[in-house]
Amino acid sequence: MASSRNKAPASGPASTGHYFSAWKIILPVIIGLAVVALMFYHDARKEDLADVWRCIRFTPWAVFCIFLAFCCMFGRDFGLSWRFRELTDKQLRWSQAYKVDLRCEFTSCVTPSAVGGSSLGMVFLNTQGIEFGRATTLMLTTLFLDELFFVVFCPIVVLVTPAGEIFASGGEGFSHGIEITFWLVYSFLALYTFVLFTGIIWKPLWIRKVITVIFRWRILRRWSDKADALGENMVATSRELRTKSASFWIKVFGATSLSWTSRYLVVNALFLAFLPHVDQWIVLARQFVIWVVLMVSPTPGGSGLSEWIFSEYYGDLVPSAGLVLILAIFWRLISYYVYLLIGAVILPSWLGKAYTKLRGKSSGKAASKETDHEQE
């Protein structure tokens, strides 16, 4: 366990600069705007979009509900920051946990949904004083908790919601397609969650052995070192998690549930603002389906695909195609573009400081070695 935690980072802040190059920030914006523009152009041929915009009335009630939507995103950030605090046994202060949360969220904005914000989470935790090996085990745990949330709650939501309501939309082909996609992705998530459970809690040595055997194949041999490190981290994670009490698991899973549910409630707040007569449970239930489907999005942060799915999926609940597209834009502005903007502002400064810190450590080690050599 010690050897796993004391390994040098496979990648560090200095090596992540290219990861956040300008085009990775601009690309999702371009994709999202292009899709929205095409959809607006398509809808403009069917209805007068000026009339649609006039339907958006910013009454005191609507403004209050939009404020609630932002509060829901704060609830999402609070839940994830709380989870980081609990996972590190409160080693992270609230401010540090919030910084890690924002950086992970920005990473998820500029990477495909299948990659997610956990891809560099261990680096972000490492910069806050968490040893890199332990940070890796913590990110594996967050990944397991996120997948467990979907595996537990998705079937419950589907069971208590009529199939004709949760999968229905304006078109029969789309409804059938999204239902099939949902269950295929859910099946994969269930299998993946079971593998994570086996690897980091139940039988980590089994999974490590399987990973080692697979990555000894010639075609995969180049990644064998990383696979070995992953196996060791799973074993280290298992040893740590087995010592945790029931209250620990209640807290971290509760924080996970709070963060995801808060994210979903953003759409409820927007419907309350402009379409308060719509069944709020159906709005919420469909968010579970949308986010499962978006997990296989190939675009950064689901840009483009998110706006299209939202408009198609909620189209039967909204009186006009233009209005549902405007709701989709509000949804993405609050839950996505705000974090993209925050990340674009704070990340360059953070990378510069982290790189300077890393160079200082490297220089100090080099000077120490040179002094030892002279003394010899």
Major sheet: none
Mean pLDDT across residues: 81
Structural class category: mainly alpha
Strand content: under 5%
Q: Give the strand tally.
A: 0
**What is the CA-based Rg, rounded?**
23 Å
What share of the residues lie within helices?
Answer: over 70%
Distance between the termini: 34 Å
Order of helices and strands: HHHHHHHHHHHHHHH
- What coarse outline follows from CA principal-axis ratios? globular
Helical run tally: 15
Question: Spans with pLDDT under 50 lasting ≥5 residues?
Answer: 1-18
Report a brief summary of the structure.
By secondary structure, the protein is mainly alpha-helical. It is built from 15 helices and no strands. It is globular, with a radius of gyration of 23 Å.
Main attributes of the structure:
376 residues, mainly alpha, 15 helices, disordered N terminus, globular
Task: Please describe what this structure looks like.
By secondary structure, the chain is mostly helical. 76% of the residues lie in helices and 0% in strands. It has 15 helices and no strands. The protein has helices at residues 2-5, 22-44, 49-55, 60-87, 94-110, 121-127, 132-160, 163-166, 172-202, 204-214, 224-241, 246-274, 280-294, 305-313, 321-375. Helix 9 (172-202) packs across helix 11 (224-241). The longest helix is centred in the C-terminal third of the chain and has 55 residues, at 321-375. The two termini are 34 Å apart.
